[in-house]
Amino acid sequence: MIDKSKKQISEKHQRILDAAIEMFAEKGYASTSTSEIAKKAEVAEGTIFRHYKTKKDLLLSIVSPTIATFIAPHFTKAFSKEVLQGDYASYEEFLRTFAYNRYEFLKQNLPIIKIFVQEVAFHEEFQKPYVKLFKKEILPYFKKMILHFQEKGELKQLPPETIMRFTVTTIAGTILTKQFIAKELDFEKELDEAILFLMGGLKQ
């Protein structure tokens, strides 16, 4: 649910947002019509268009605040401080902290994150702020972490950006598979196997 404290809105408007989040997450943006959203929200379809010119405006109103309120302070600055600026005995220890931190974040914000993941590839508006924040808040600390373990002789002398890509795709793939594709999987077991696989390729 969108937090009413962020912006005072009417009960009907709130129902529209809640219905849109639920249906976009369940069916996808392209497969959801404004008439379906209106029916679920128990409002006339015209009520939606009094607040939003188009269905895409409605989508942006849901995801754009997420970028501003979650991606900026939590996904980047807080994540950087909580995870990337930590002191780890090994790269493997860092991987576990990284994985569990993102796994909990995803569970807590699942509907909106699901919409973001589904739609980010198709809407440039979602990509630009995300990429900008990543380059500013995540990339420098992630690179510093990798260089640290390369200097210790734990990681291969590959370009840090390459190790970063391998790390993110492996960990993110494990988390997303558990959350969206095979919910019956034992996350701890899958993560152990993913880390074993990753470290097998990255260790010096």
Automatic annotation (TrEMBL):
Specify the HTH tetR-type domain's residue ranges: 10-70
Entry keyword set: DNA-binding, Membrane, Repressor, Transmembrane, Transmembrane helix
Q: DNA binding happens at which residues?
A: 33-52
What Pfam family does this protein match (any one)?
TetR_N
Give the stretches traversing the membrane: 58-75
InterPro entries the UniProt entry points to: Homeodomain-like_sf, HTH-type_Tx_Regulator, HTH_TetR, Tet_transcr_reg_TetR-rel_C_sf
Q: What is this protein called?
A: HTH tetR-type domain-containing protein
